[in-house]
Queue: 2 jobs
Job 1
Amino acid sequence: MGPRRGAYVATEILAPYAPPGQSLYNLRRAMHHQAMDKLELEKALTRLGQLLRERRVAGEIAVFGGAAIVLGFDFRSATQDVDAMITQGHGQVVKAQQEVGTELALPPNWLNEQGTSYLSKRSDFKLFKTYPSEGQFGLRVLTAAPQYLLAMRLLSLRQYGHDVQDVMQLAQRLGCTTAEDLLELLKHYYPDEQIPPEKTAEIRSIARQISAPNKP
């Protein structure tokens, strides 16, 4: 089944407001964009780094959430966007990521800081890669450490989307397979967070799922 007429009407209405250089075709693609796989993610970050290098800007972002999992692990194939905290060259990074979004037909907020409320005071990021290559200018990308990613997933835990699967996969790789392990990790990164009984019950349920395959 092809795209609905309503989708075309919407893009036709929005066409006069498309960013400079973005065709109606690319605008439609951005509106219907579902997710970025690792290849698309690397392409977007590389292009972002290229633009910053051309402008002699040293940018840096700390990536967490689904994008950090896609970059660092093989169990998650795609992410809707890049949750990040821009830690250097903020204004230039924001401007350049908008241009990259236009070029590659990505959503306007493909890289955003909306998820920073889930960050811990115990910052735990490691250098992942510099785009397009090592050098004074470009984009340094830090990613959250695996245990930090797991703690954030536990804090934001939802029963839909990728959260539960992400928790199970990360927990197995880190050897955090009991409810006590998971709750202790959560408390380590978020010592001031009050964990409601409902969330504790959800974490205990996930721990049982993790352990179940290992039972005879």
Job 2
Amino acid sequence: MHAARHSSNAHAANRGAMPYPALFKRLKRRKPLRLRCERCGRTCVEEKPAPRSAGIEIITSQAHNKVAAVAAAIEDARPLSMRINAWEWRWPLNTYRERDANKLSRAMLDRLAEAERMTLDQNREDLAHRDEVRARYAELEADCDACISLSAPAAAPLGAVSTGDPNCTVHASLLGIPAISLPMLQDDGLPLGLQIAGFVNGDAQTFAIAAAIKPLL
């Protein structure tokens, strides 16, 4: 770890700038002053008194235009992300299929079929749309310290068939932002995560905010 860090720092010095600025900061707990709360199929934590009593303001889409705009922009995050992902998997998957299609799952074969129906222009449109969504989300950084939501709409499902509904987390992948799940809530006696999402290159700050929020719940 020390060698890797020294190498990266030396490389950055040669270029005159630190790469991945959030990666090389010492973590300090930082209480956020303002949080954006996002609903994911049910009430998040805006009704819990602890964050407010600690002097943290929580803003929602009902009262803040920028939050409402971001909520609308990420509404189709899952299908958009899935299309981009399918296109990027097109070439490895078609190679695997040529080697032995029987070793690919039905889900992977379906994803490959979807990708082969897409055109380059469609992929370019999806990437442009993603850039627009990322730009809209980045505007929130001037108004709040982090964004909070549930990590899932409900507790984990029974059995091993599915890991649950990804709709509450897929936007973090689409936006390219750090997101931390704190297992501080409960649903039907099972743990349910509170998701703390930050901003691009804000990994250290997101961890610091999560550390400050954890004792409040």
